[in-house]
Design goal:
There is one protein chain. The chain contains 15 helices and 13 strands. By secondary structure, it is α/β, with parallel strands linked by helices. It has 2 domains: 178 residues, Rossmann fold; 180 residues, Glycogen Phosphorylase B (Rossmann fold, 3-Layer(aba) Sandwich). It is an enzyme of class 2 (transferase).
């Protein structure tokens, strides 16, 4: 079986990492992979070990030329199936290209933001099947009218291995100029509005009087960086909050956090939540999208209502004040990730859907 994967993202963030996991897993299962991605995309180089990489201009939803470029690639490579992994033009335009080429097409949906029923009725005709990365996203599509037999949930996964090592918390704090016993919370997310950084900053007004030594490390980059930097300074938080940018050694340091905070307004599932659980870090997340599937309330973390700063502050205060609870939740998180979010399970799930789609096409 030969599969053309289309990933339009330029950075190796959560979604693109999932594509990389899938490419590697499918290659081990004997699948011939071809990856189409933008020129200079960060996924291109590591993907070459598992796929033939073809860099094509991908300029977003208005790039109508992408249809002809993908159609030409399909004609040249003759894949059995096209798997569209991202938005930014790749979903709609990629679906049109596959339809014009007469090749079966599968779409991965990674976000839980709603779409109008008429959009769903028209757009999703392009795809033979839709794969959602969480049951929460699947329920959104079902509520918008997509037929149940056309959409399946195959959860995102994480390679837990890099996060299983012991972390020297004292040495990590020393590298930041902090006392060995300083409490450290983290947030790992793109610096974009829906991730909810503003809620975390607001909650600190209630948390810091009880935990004045708390350090909050914000990992990631994005268009909100300047705005967040200004907010941190304006709210007098510069002594407690640091913007760490994008780091290459996240697996080495994630386990040194006392807790991870992820107060997003919406999230398909949350790869950083899985990574934190693998590193035995308890989590505070929003009760929205697929996050309750990654964070089981009272088991490996605490859930709060989206945008509720008082609940968020209370949850942070509870975990910061109870080391034994943090340890129990950390252990439960690792057990959860190893049992339910393995890369092998994700790859097997995607491959099963490919085979189902191809078998149904052969019947028609």
């Amino acid at each position: 079986m030969k599969v053309l994967h289309v990933e339009s993202g330029r950075h190796l963030y959560g979604g693109a990492k999932q594509v990389l996991y899938i490419l590697e897993g499918l290659a081990r299962r004997g699948i011939d992979n071809l990856l189409a991605c933008p020129p200079g995309a960060h996924i291109a180089e590591p993907a070459k070990a598992h796929a033939k990489v073809c860099e094509l201009p991908m300029k977003g939803d208005a790039d109508l030329g992408l249809v002809s470029r993908l159609k030409s690639l399909i004609a040249a490579e003759r894949p059995d199936l096209v798997h569209l992994h991202s938005r930014r033009g790749a979903d709609l335009l990629g679906g049109i290209a596959a339809r014009l080429a007469g090749v079966p097409c599968v779409l991965s949906r990674r976000v839980d933001n709603p779409e109008a029923r008429w959009v769903v009725a028209l757009k999703y005709r392009l795809y033979d099947h839709v794969i959602t990365i969480s049951e929460g996203i699947r329920q959104v599509l079902l509520a918008e009218g997509l037929a149940p037999d056309k959409v399946s949930c195959v959860r995102s996964a994480v390679d837990a291995t890099p996060y299983l090592h012991h972390c020297d918390k004292a040495a990590f704090r020393a590298s930041l100029g902090l006392p060995a016993d300083a409490p450290v919370a983290g947030m790992v997310a793109q610096l974009i509005p829906r991730k909810g950084h503003r809620y975390l900053l607001a909650a600190l007004k209630e948390v810091l009087p009880r935990h004045p030594a708390l350090q909050v490390l914000v990992f990631g980059r994005g268009p909100l960086e300047a705005e967040l930097r200004q907010a941190i300074a304006g709210q007098g938080l510069a002594g407690n909050v640091r913007l760490m940018g994008f780091v290459d050694n996240l697996p080495e340091i994630l386990g040194c956090l006392d807790l991870l905070v992820h107060p997003a307004d919406m999230e398909g599932l949350g790869v950083s939540l899985l990574q934190a659980s693998a590193a035995r870090v308890p989590i505070i997340a929003s009760r929205a999208g697929g996050m309750p599937e990654a964070v089981r309330d009272g088991v490996n973390g605490l859930l709060v209502e989206p945008g509720d700063m008082r609940q968020l502050a209370g949850a942070m205060d509870r975990l910061l004040g109870d080391p034994a609870l943090r340890a129990r939740m950390g252990e439960a998180g690792r057990t959860l990730v190893l049992g339910e979010f393995s890369v092998d399970a994700m790859c097997d799930g995607n491959l099963a859907i490919y085979r189902k789609v191809l078998a149904e096409r052969r019947k028609t």
